[in-house]
Amino acid sequence: MSETTYYSQGEAQVTSASAVLGGTTYAIADIRSVSIGTKARSRLAIPLLCLAAYLALLVVLGSYVSSQILYPVGAVLGLGLAVVLVFRGPRTTTYTVRLRSASGETDAFGSKNRQDIEKIVDAIHQAIIARQSLPEPDTAQADVSRSAPSPP
């Protein structure tokens, strides 16, 4: 039986036997279900980091310069921090290929482009359905042929 490729682009390849996502190979036979997951960037990380840097800078400047210079510099830096907090950029979401198997659930691959993830998920669905529609091999026939003595 030949292997059919359902998707192949970049770091993602889905065939009838396996899905290679970001350098990790997953057997299609082991995948029970696949879905799209999301991961949103934390909105608290950047403001807290900016606040910590601002306070550290004020402490360092306070030990080297007089308060006459420190207050205007602190005000300018405080305004800069306020601008960063208000306009810190759009919230980014990472979309993931979420695989469920007997061993649990894992986010196997991620991208900021939802269409790419949808194509990969659809390809894995196709591979799972194609695998389920295959006829089961006749194991009794295989066992008989192995145990039968070879003709002279």
Count helical runs: 4
Largest sheet: 4 strands, antiparallel
- Mean pLDDT across residues: 78
- Strands ordered across the widest β-sheet: 1-2-3-4
Shape: rod-shaped
> What class, by secondary structure content?
alpha+beta
Order of helices and strands: EEEEEHHEEHH
Distance N to C terminus = 31 Å
Count of folded domains:
2
Q: Based on DSSP secondary structure assignment, what is the total number of beta strands?
A: 7
Describe the structure.
- The protein has 152 residues and is of the alpha+beta class.
- The chain folds into two domains: 5-41 and 92-135, no CATH class; 45-86.
- The protein has four helices and seven strands; from the N terminus they run E-E-E-E-E-H-H-E-E-H-H.
- The chain has helices at 45-64, 67-86, 114-132, 139-147; strands at 5-9, 12-15, 18-21, 24-27, 31-40, 93-101, 104-111.
- Strand 3 and strand 4 form a beta hairpin.
- The protein starts with a strand and ends in a 5-residue tail after the last helix.
